[in-house]
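--- STAGE predict ---
source: upstream dedup step, 1 unique chain passed
mode: sequence only
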Amino acid sequence: MTSAPPRRTTTRTLLRTSAVASIFAFATAAFAPPAAAADTSPAQQLERFARAAGGAADAGRGREFFTRTHGGKWSCASCHGNPPLADGKHAGTGKRIDALAPAANPRAFTDTARVDKWFKRNCNDVLKRECTPAEKADVLAWLAALPR
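--- STAGE serialize ---
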């Protein structure tokens, strides 16, 4: 028995194979469930803010900061609740907000980009400025210490 001669790979075959692979990759990405964007943990975020602040975080200061209005009409607790162990509601829009405490929401503080985005936005709402690294560290120290 003799074997068949090897098939020649033509440009047409390569293009067809490449097109099928591209369609498969697109379909897989388009219909796959979204990947979790967890690149960090609450403990790592706390360490990052404490390091930037140049000192240890204080959960007591964090609790006081979270519940105070800072001269405006809103505090962090206005939307997130006190303690923030259940879903909250935006004070202005009424939009539901996921529970903030890591004990109640395992996804809380696990995506650095979201952490930075929401601290910037929410601090501006409450303080009319960005929070300092020390303020972020203190608040996160309190939130991380909350039991379920």
